[in-house]
Amino acid sequence: MVRKTAARRPPPRPADSAPLHERTRRTILDHAARLFRARGYASTSLRDIATATGMKAGSIYYHFDSKEALAETVMVQGIALVEERVRSAIAAVPEGTDPLVVIKAAMTAHMQALHESGDYASANIRCYSHVPDDMKKRLRKVRATYDDLWGDLIEAAARAGRLAPGIDTRALRYALIGMMNWTLEWRRPADDSPDALAGQLYRVAFEGAARDE
Amino acid sequence: MVRKTAARRPPPRPADSAPLHERTRRTILDHAARLFRARGYASTSLRDIATATGMKAGSIYYHFDSKEALAETVMVQGIALVEERVRSAIAAVPEGTDPLVVIKAAMTAHMQALHESGDYASANIRCYSHVPDDMKKRLRKVRATYDDLWGDLIEAAARAGRLAPGIDTRALRYALIGMMNWTLEWRRPADDSPDALAGQLYRVAFEGAARDE
DNA sequence: CCTACCGATCGGTAGG
DNA sequence: CCTACCGATCGGTAGG
Predict the structure, then answer these.
(1) Residue B193 DSSP code
(2) Left (φ > 0), alpha (ψ -120 to 50) or beta: where does B90 sit?
(3) What is the value of pTM for the model shown?
(4) Which residues of the protein have their beta carbon within 7 Å of strand C?
(5) Deepest of A9, A184, B26, B123, by most Cβ within 10 A of its Cβ?
(6) Which residue is nearest to the C1' sugar atom of C1, using CA?
(7) What angle do CA B82, A202, B167 make, to 5 degrees?
(8) Tens-digit pLDDT profile for residues A150-192
């Protein structure tokens, strides 16, 4: 399986040479992402996260100001890690490429990053609706920026005459996002590579699942 | 806008003539569904639900054994209300109908019921991952039964030679479910009728969004 | 990064 | 269906 995009490896994981507190911070975030994903925002206590990280409850506050701040960091990264990969995949495509080919590359990058940073991405998707209002308001903007990236790709395809007449571009945008993100709920890692799934979903959404008559 | 399926009106809403405690029970469920959808399972307290319903905290236990039992009732109905409508839409289609037409009718029924019982359906989708383990185990079976209904429709289409070669039927099943359920997160009720959305999503998934070349 | 602690809130119950 | 209450847990803080 060859990586198809120019995106380099995953996230902002600090090197072994990084200061201890930076590595500890990343460990906290990893456990927080995993627990928020599995149990939700409210059911995950700072004590749970501290214990998983190997520290005492109050010590989390040495690294984060509040439970909200910790969760927001996790959830923002759940979007940012995917968005960065998708943007660099788009940037790696030569000028003048068929907009549908760009969309396919973007879908592949989205699926790779989504499943590589699965706990962060899934924590973001699963917890978003149930997070305190002020935090949700900020996250909504981050989400909208990413969603608009897909809107732009689809509008480019429409302007290039590459979409079938009568397609609702807003419905198409969220159909893509919905079907891709839902793979977090059903993918069997042993059977389905992110690349293969991206190919299947691109095919369904753009070429259609029906046999041509 | 004409209703396309034979499904009759919504859910098990007790008549005005029903015993008071049955109507009260339904009121509790309605407020619980709305609050679980908006705030999540753990962040919604029985006190919140009781206050919204107009009673005192402890009185919920006259109608439900526990918070878990109340939430499970809401979430099971979030699936059941949709499943019943979809099954009756399928049953209303004449024998020998093109399997893709059956799927389109099922998608329309799913979208109608999903958005008519929006709080129940959305509470189910949003809270499922964060609910206590024993309850999640039971809900998983209910979900699987409904998901398999879509698997059957898709297999029927495959056997009839109505699917394009190389389509992964499992990916298609969850692509459909994912794109339909995600409409709960972005639909603008004033602009998008469930029927119109069902038509758009059917078109994307089966005919494809790309212009034929 | 730990100890020890506080006020608030929660699910649930007894008794009526 | 209400009142009054309990034990448990939580986010957060002071002081080191």
Answers:
(1) -
(2) alpha
(3) 0.94
(4) A 20-21, 24, 50, 55-59, 62-63; B 44-48, 57-58, 61, 66-68
(5) B123
(6) A59
(7) 70
(8) 999 999 999 999 999 999 999 999 999 999 999 999 999 999 9
